[in-house]
Amino acid sequence: MAGINLKKNILISSFYRVLGMFLAFLTGWISTRFLGVELKGQYGYLITMSSFAWLIIDLGIHQTYPYLLRKEPEKGNILFAWSLLQFCGEILFFSAVGLALMPFLSRLLKFDFTPTIIILVSGAISLTKLNMHMQMHYLGQDKVRYGNICQTLNSLMMLVVVVLGYLFFTSVDRLVYVLIAYNLAMLTSIIGLVFPKLFTRFWRGFDLSYIFKSYNLGWRVFLSSLFISLLIRFDMMLIRRFLSFDALGIYAVASNIVEMLQMASNMVGSLLLVKLSDLDDQQESWNTLKKVFIFFFGLLTVANLGFVILGKPLLSIMYGKDFTPVYNVYLWLIPASFGLSFGSLFNTYLWSKGFPWISVLLPAIALTLNIVLDIILIPIMGINGAALATSIGYLSWFIAILLYENHKTEGRFLRYMKPSRTDLEEMSSSVKDWADQLKNSKQGVK
Asked: Which of 207, 231, 300, 441 is the most buried (most CB within 10 A)?
């Protein structure tokens, strides 16, 4: 299989990701105004639960797709068929079980479920999971451009439907409407991703034993991904327990800003996993990782400074006065933006070494710390306490990865990762080159 051109893939992905982030920003802005504080909290609560559900039933296998496809590309159709087979069973299962247990779930989760919401949440779980499977499938095949095009269609569809609702359907059940928009957006992306193989005999040679073998690797990825996801979102569950949906809505907007910044690191992290999986030279891996680390440090610094200066008036103008408390909450989350992005990147480095168990243990420890701090700080400081706990949890995860790898390499890792003047000069030159290429990339990526 041909080698990975990381720079080219980052350039292509950056073009579409910038476009996607812009569309997501517009969607978040309009949907927040459309929903209001309380419904925004309810929507964030449902999507958070959906993300937990699909991550748990996935058992981490989607994260192994890029790694497996680089090692055994001939097995791609097996993984593709398995993803579709799971989707068909899951959407029926979640709808049936959800409707049967609706009163119980309403009491357990402290949410007034309706049959419509149960079906839409079931769709969100199944469609999101399949979408992630297909994205990783194309990533492992080094078809970065096509995967990004489909993801952009997802963002565009969500924006179009939300805008139509904001302009013309103000009298509808707004929460249900936005959930419908979410499902339609996911379905749009999936149609694009599945279509190229849909009328081929992709099921031929299906080998269930290979799937079981893949899950042996996927278990470690599952536990690692689960703890990372809980580290990102569990505070929202605790806020719901201690505070109101209004407080949850404020916190959801602030945490969405952190997650938007992390979108870039997630994108590069996925590309990095594919690249590092192809490399056998440790120094070359470290050099690649260091360049990405320096770039993101600069990016996050500029983004957070911009928010500190302009965030308060922008929030008031865009979302209204009810959302101005988001500014103070996000100030507490600034360290979290660094810890989450860097933790994700360096955890990808650990995954590229065969998904070791330490990549499970470290986020589990950080999650435990975060939960303990949430329980202590939320009753004292409210949503600011949740933000502080999250910042400490994310930073502890990143620092723990650094200390572990430095110990394993007898002190060489941190010495190598420390940026030098030459590194900064090379990165500055690379950024200028990338910026020049990005300006002319519209025709090149079509």
From this structure: 231
Q: Is the pLDDT of residue 253 over 50?
A: yes
Q: State how far the alpha carbon of 245 is from the alpha carbons of 91, 117, 124, in Å.
A: 28, 17, 21
Cβ atoms < 10 Å from Cβ of 246: 16
CB 397 within 8 A of CB 362: yes
pTM for the full predicted model = 0.60
Residue 230 vs residues 331, 363, 404: alpha-carbon distances, Å: 21, 9, 22
Q: Tell which residue, 17, 41, 40, has the closest CA to residue 237.
A: 41
Given a contact cutoff of 8 angstroms between Cβ atoms, the answer to whether 401 and 362 are in contact is yes
Could you write out the DSSP letters of every residue in 342-378?
HHHHHHHHHHTTT--THHHHHHHHHHHHHHHHHHHHH
3-state helix, strand, coil in the chain (%, to 5): 90, 0, 10
Q: In the numeric block, which tokens belong to residue 126? A: 């199944």
271 pLDDT tier (thresholds 50, 70, 90): low
Dihedral angle, C-alpha 152, 158, 161, 162, nearest 10 °: -130
**Dihedral angle of Cα 241, 245, 251, 254, to the nearest 10 degrees:** 150
Phi/psi of residue 434, nearest 5 degrees:
-65, -40
Task: Enter the DSSP assignment of 243.
Answer: S
348 alpha-carbon distance from chain centroid: 13
| 112: Cβ contacts below 8 Å, ≥ 6 apart | 106
